[in-house]
Design brief:
The structure holds two protein chains of two kinds. By secondary structure, chain A is α+β, with helices and mostly antiparallel strands. Chain A has one domain (32-245). Chain A has helices at 2-24, 118-121, 208-211, 229-242, and strands at 29-40, 43-44, 51-52, 58-59, 63-75, 80-83, 88-90, 96-103, 105-114, 142-143, 148-158, 170-177, 183-187, 192-194, 200-207, 222-223, 243-245. In chain A, strands 5, 6, 7, 9, 10, 11, 12, 13, 14 and 16 form a ten-stranded mixed beta sheet that branches. In chain A, strands 1, 2, 8, 15 and 17 form a five-stranded mixed beta sheet that branches. Chain A has a two-stranded antiparallel sheet with strand order 3-4. In chain A, strand 5 and strand 6 form a beta hairpin. The longest helix of chain A is centred in the N-terminal third of the chain and has 23 residues, at 2-24. By secondary structure, chain B is mainly α. Chain B folds into two domains: 6-77, Orthogonal Bundle (Cytochrome Bc1 Complex, Chain D, domain 2), CATH 1.10.760.10; 86-220, Cytochrome Bc1 Complex, Chain D, domain 2 (Orthogonal Bundle). Helix content of chain B is 38%, strand content 2%. Chain B is built from eleven helices and two strands, in the order ααααααααβαβαα. Chain B has helices spanning 21-24, 26-30, 39-48, 52-60, 66-77, 86-91, 101-110, 117-120, 146-149, 181-190, 209-220, and strands at residues 131-132, 158-159. Chain B has a two-stranded antiparallel ribbon with strand order 1-2. Chain B is globular and about 60 Å long. The chains are: A alpha+beta, B mainly alpha. Chains A and B meet through strand 10 of A and helix 1, helix 2, helix 3 and helix 5 of B.
């Protein structure tokens, strides 16, 4: 009896080795990931800390989450390698975001969307496995009224005193969503190379202080996008400038 | 607006914001003025319930999840049908005495070129599912369809509601601002308020008192018996 199991095992090992061989004949791949820091200026955007905006006004952060999607790698010869079906829900508490295996080689750069394309944006969140960032989240980052996602949720408290001498006690809330507000973040001139020996981490910084560029917290303290479109547009237009490569 | 016959709706809500009955489920769960809750918390509650997990497994071969929850509610809604009104007996069962004389006169007004109601409230659900401005306000607090499309041309346009069981679903219009069917008829008879998006079909009708009553009686004959 024991022998028979052994034989079956041997045969199946052979079978799997054969399969593996088959896979090896495909172009070599290695794991790529984003190492993404959500910052305020130079400091990590921890929910327990108090920060100052561009006018030295104090604020804190209660919730900051944002979608990154449609990541496209640009190979050295200009051809593009899109990472399909990959959306990330980024937040300050997480830094590692695996993008899976990609072909080894030299790349000119990459780009991605801050937000979601219009098809993904209006898909049914219940259709995704609970582990997928596009599934219903708690707290929610999706709107039921238009069946669309919030691309960036950025809320907390700020010091609303005129002289900016108080404490962060007043609410600010930026719920930025809507097809037109997705923004392409372009790093097409940031070369990198992926080799077989080790995976690659691309270090990316996202600075919330820059997201608040030219935003006066005292008068521009809130938008759910549709109720204050100019402010939502202003914040979305700050996204590209808030990103940099580490 | 009734949820009966909602299976026929090409999209959900007065502004058409949600494409299916499945995606619609999350909106009332999350809306601050409704449940102010969260889909995943509902799923958690269902999973902790003594009965629901086994019922879900029976129906879907898997326990409560965002997927099975939204499918279960949507499929329940698809079973809510109506089609047993006096009007249906008259129109589809050909019972000529099912409607009173006043209701029949009201029907002629409703489907006539003078009142024009049927152009928007047509078909067996009494709606063509389009978005229209019926001149309720000069300036709308709720931008209606434009909230979804952001188009200026859609400001103050709302989905034409079904009129089945309408006598049972007062108050009326997207904001419930019109109390009775009599008031609705007064609104249409007046031609509504001026609005840059108002449909050309909405204009003064000059209905007599009797005609107004007949029109209301006809709408009351759309209730299931």
């Amino acid at each position: 009896m024991k022998k028979r199991i052994l034989i079956t095992l041997a045969v199946s090992t052979l079978f799997f080795t054969a399969c593996k061989k088959d896979k090896d004949s495909k172009p070599a791949e290695s794991e790529l990931s984003f190492h993404l820091h959500t910052l305020v200026g130079n400091t990590a955007a921890n929910y327990t800390d108090i920060f100052t905006d561009n006018t030295e006004r104090k604020f804190n952060i209660a919730d900051c989450r944002y979608y990154i999607s449609n990541i496209v790698l640009i190979k050295d010869d200009g051809t593009e390698f899109p990472l399909t079906d990959k959306a990330l829900l980024a937040s300050p508490s997480q830094k590692e975001y695996s993008l899976g295996n990609v072909p080894v080689g030299k790349y000119k750069g990459f780009r991605f969307l801050m937000g979601l394309d219009s098809v993904t944006n209006h898909d049914d969140p219940a259709g995704y496995a609970a582990s997928n960032p596009l599934s219903y989240q708690n707290p929610t980052i999706h709107w039921g009224w238009n069946n669309g996602y919030i691309f960036m949720e950025f809320v907390g408290k700020f010091d609303s005193t005129v002289a900016a001498t108080g404490n962060p006690v007043a609410d600010y809330f930026y719920h930025i969503g809507f097809d037109d507000l997705k923004r392409t973040i372009d790093f097409s001139n940031s070369p990198f190379e992926i080799t077989t020996d080790a995976g690659l981490e691309i270090g990316i910084l996202f600075d919330l202080k820059k997201v608040l560029n030219n935003v006066d917290l005292r008068t521009e303290f809130g938008t759910h996008t549709m109720d204050n479109m100019p402010l939502a547009v202003k914040i979305a237009n700050n996204w590209q400038g808030a990103y940099s490569i580490e | 607006m009734t949820i009966l016959n909602t299976a026929y709706q090409p999209n959900m809500f007065w502004d058409g914001g949600s494409p299916t009955l499945e995606t619609q489920v999350s909106a009332p769960i999350e809306a601050h003025e409704e449940m102010d809750f969260n889909v995943m918390k509902v799923v958690e509650r269902l999973n902790n319930h003594p009965l629901y997990p086994s019922l879900f497994r029976k129906a879907y071969n898997s326990g409560p999840s965002a997927f099975t929850l939204t499918r279960a509610i949507a499929n329940f809604e698809r079973t809510l049908f109506t089609g047993k009104s006096k009007y249906d007996a008259f129109q589809y069962e050909k019972k000529s005495d099912a409607l009173s004389a006043s209701e029949k006169r009201g029907m002629d007004i409703f489907f006539g070129e003078r009142a024009e109601c049927f152009h928007c409230h047509g078909g067996f659900n009494f709606t063509d599912f389009s978005f229209k401005n019926n001149g309720l306000y000069e300036v709308y607090a709720d931008s209606g369809r434009a909230r979804i499309t952001t188009l200026h041309d859609d400001v103050g346009e709302f989905k034409v509601p079904s009129l089945r069981n309408v006598a049972l679903t007062a108050p009326y219009m997207h904001d419930g601002s019109v109390a009775t069917l009599e008031d609705v008829v007064e609104h249409y008879n007046s031609g509504g308020k001026p609005n840059f998006n108002k449909s050309f079909l909405i204009r003064p009708l000059n209905l007599t008192q009797q005609e107004k009553e007949d029109l209301v009686n006809f709408m009351k004959a759309l209730s299931d018996q």
